[in-house]
Amino acid sequence: MSIQVENLVHIYDKGMPSEQLALDNVSFEAEDGQLVGIIGHTGSGKSTLLQHLNGLLRPHSGKVIVGGVDITQPGVPMVQIRKKIGLVFQYPEYQLFEETVAKDVAFGPKNLGLSEEEIAERVREAIELVGLDYEEVAERSPFDLSGGQKRRVAIAGVVAMRPEVLILDEPTAGLDPKAHQDVLKMVQEVHERTGNITILVSHNMADIARLCDKVVVIDSGKLVAVGTPYEVFSQKDQLREVGLELPPVTQFTETLREKGIELDSTILDVDTAVSQIAKYLKKEK
Amino acid sequence: MIRDITLGQYFPGESAIHRLDPRVKIIATLLFIIELFIVDNFIGFAIAAVYLGAVIAVSRVPLSFIVRGLKPVIIILLFTFALNIFMVDGQIIWQWKFLHITVEGVRLAVFMAIRIILLLIGSSMLTLCTRPLSLTDGIERLLSPFKKIGLPAHEIAMMMTIALRFIPTLLEETDKIMKAQQARGADFESGGLIQKAKALIPILVPLFVSAFRIAMDLAMAMESRCYRGGEHRTRMHEMKLKGMDWAAIAFLVVFLAMIIIESRIF
Hints:
Number of domains of chain B: 2
Low-confidence stretches of chain B: none
Strand content of chain A: 15-25%
Shape of chain A: globular
CATH topology of the largest domain in chain A: Rossmann fold
Helix content of chain A: 40-55%
Mean pLDDT of chain B: 85
Distance between the termini of chain A: 53 Å
Radius of gyration of chain A: 21 Å
Largest sheet of chain A: 6 strands, mixed
Oligomer: heterodimer
Distance between the termini of chain B: 45 Å
Helix content of chain B: 55-70%
Number of strands of chain A: 10
Number of helices of chain B: 11
Number of strands of chain B: 2
């Protein structure tokens, strides 16, 4: 599977005084096994972009090619697309509606028209994959769970559909630091287990730098940069121009470099930073 | 889909109509509606249409936008039209079994259709050109004389303000939930009536949960700012009739006079 987004343009409220160009000629691609991070400010068009990827919104021009099929063309069966692409919205716990966790997770697979046994198996697998104890939560009401658990259940609801592309829109928004780390770890595990494309939207540069193979930067509907975290975060000035920060480690090492301490440029993780600084200190002695 | 509903929607603008005192606009709309029911011939409607046309022209709301707002009521319109055309007795011009069309029936059907269309456009002009908040402010002021007989004018206006304020929020919420469930493969379009009604459960349950959550948050926010009802509240924007408002009132009086004279003559 691969995804190609080509020259995507989307305009909200076309013809109204409130008309707004939400996506302006955005192109990028992703391949199997890649974890792609999308960064940008609130209102930059990230969510609009995601909704194009599984056909919830139709572009005014441009293409979204999923596994060789242009899904912006009329007549492409949406069920097929949604089977392939799982989208987890922001605050997904607000979509929970069933009486029990198991039933809620089963909603997606049921809509795919699978057999009872297949559904039961997928539900169990998905709940365990998101790090919950099936025996403990399956028969409980999703509304009785904690915030972090609700979010996991909601993500399980999409994972249970076994999508070939999993898209998560700010999966850690509003969670405490512990739940934040847990959810990210879970996303990484699901990604490694399935080996499919995972697309992650986040405001947290450190998370993006640490987890992603590829980073897409969007600002006011325009593509600012695409590349590996190293490529993207080394374009310091460009990022600053659109008001985005570097990851904290990189900020720290770049400041040291400006002070004349010899380190590699654009260090993205703490371990590398530590070893480089240690090396520098040894040399100084 | 949901965004297509323009009935009761506000169309942002800076025209003279937009800037009029909401009280003037509410009374003008009420009078317009009453007049539509006084009128008993087509010339009266012509006068009303010219008046409405002038208001629309000044407001600069695109006509296509207004017409789009009529879409949801087309069925009602067709239904009344059909009822009128077949139910009225008189000079028969077409007949098939028990169905018959009469000259009087056609006249009445067209007459009622025009009345409904003018009524809808006229009342939608009020909401199109008035911010919901100033609308409820106007209603509060107009109702305040009735406070003496125990009418809670402020509370009514506050309830309306909150209701209006949360229509877009809840629409957005509905849209979000629908999309999220669609992403999980939910299908809202196909199937029979019962199946369609069942398909609404995954939307309605989260929507109710959200509505309660929003209501709680709002109540908390209001209480933490010491809101305690209408007594002794002052307002940021005092409503005062300006030159433009008096001009609108004069225009209204002329229109009213024309309708009354017209209904006497013809």
